Amino acid sequence: MDRKDFKIENTAITIFCSEKADSPLILFNSFNSDGAEIVDMLSKMDTPDFNFLNVKVDDWNHYLSPWNCPSLYRSEPPFDGGADEFLSLIEKTVIPEALKLINGSPSYIGISGYSLAGLFALYAICKSDIFDRAASMSGSLWFPDFVEFFKTNLKRKPSKIYLSLGDKESSVRNSYLKTVKDKTVELYESVKEQGIDCIFESNPGNHFFEPDKRCAKGMAWILSDNR
Questions:
Q1: How far is the CA of 157 from the CAs of 125, 131, 166, 208, in angstroms?
Q2: What is the reported pTM?
């Protein structure tokens, strides 16, 4: 795959372009990665051809949180609801620039992320009609009132949604994080009721165990057309 790196408003972006025309485009919001390891994993998983757009997000608690929420720990900043600002940047600038670089027009655009970026992926399909598929790996679905918001605010019915969680992620003291499994199951059941192709997978380990491997697994599923 041909790799290109550029910046938009101090946001580092890497795109891996498929040689095959009109391959789907998968956007991945990352914290400290350029996406190369995940692309390499996907290339070994017999996925269809794809374009991969990695957007490195520095201030997660601002850009990926849909609305204000207190911090989880005293040493961390609060979540201050900058998701709409970031989504606007993606829609109006990042994706249009990416489309200039890929071969042909993507058959669809998907969005994916891990942790808070997984929450943002689901928020994005509620607020935008650009994305046809979403993968939320270990998504922060503990976020207050998010599941209720999701149930009634889908702007466009996506064709596929992938959800996953580590089997030890809810085994914590924090009152918010303890709800993550119940909230993820609740959202999964709502998605299925709406007739959307969806899977919820449980992975071994806590929130920090093998995140790249979990991300590749989720993106491989939304890239596949097998139900």
A1: 8, 9, 27, 31
A2: 0.96
